[in-house]
What does this fold into?
Amino acid sequence: MIQIYYGFGKGKTTAAIGAGMRAKGADLTVSLVQFLKDNKSSELAVLPFDIWQAPDSLPFSPGEIYRDAAKSALDFVKNSKSDMIILDEFLDIIGEYISEDDALDLLKALEGREIIITGHKEVPSIFDTADYITYFEKIKHPYDKGVLARKGIEY
It folds into this structure.
């Protein structure tokens, strides 16, 4: 089945990782790929998942390094044998670093496993394949007042 957590509210990655922890507690194997993120997210240090290692640092502005990272991450996913695969920020690379058709082909190749996808934008063809879709809406966020992301809270 395919689950999608999307929107501009906080908690998409947290919800995906929570589902992964539940799966792990039921003796399922879990793989995590975080697209468009470097290795600075604090949860990576403690998760009992098979985790794709992103570059240690990514520039704030996407570019060629993101294209190379996305290709490496997608190769990791294609070779994963995990019962559950979390594709964090996957929606946001579609159309930029992977075509919609290639994204659909990847999901078809992963059929039979639990797939969790997060991101900000709606991709209708991907949404059509989903079994669960949850929208996260931001009502208020400290960033709006100039508070930067805090280690251990937002990353």
Observations:
- Residues 19 and 51 are 15 Å apart (CA to CA).
- The longest strand covers residues 2-7.
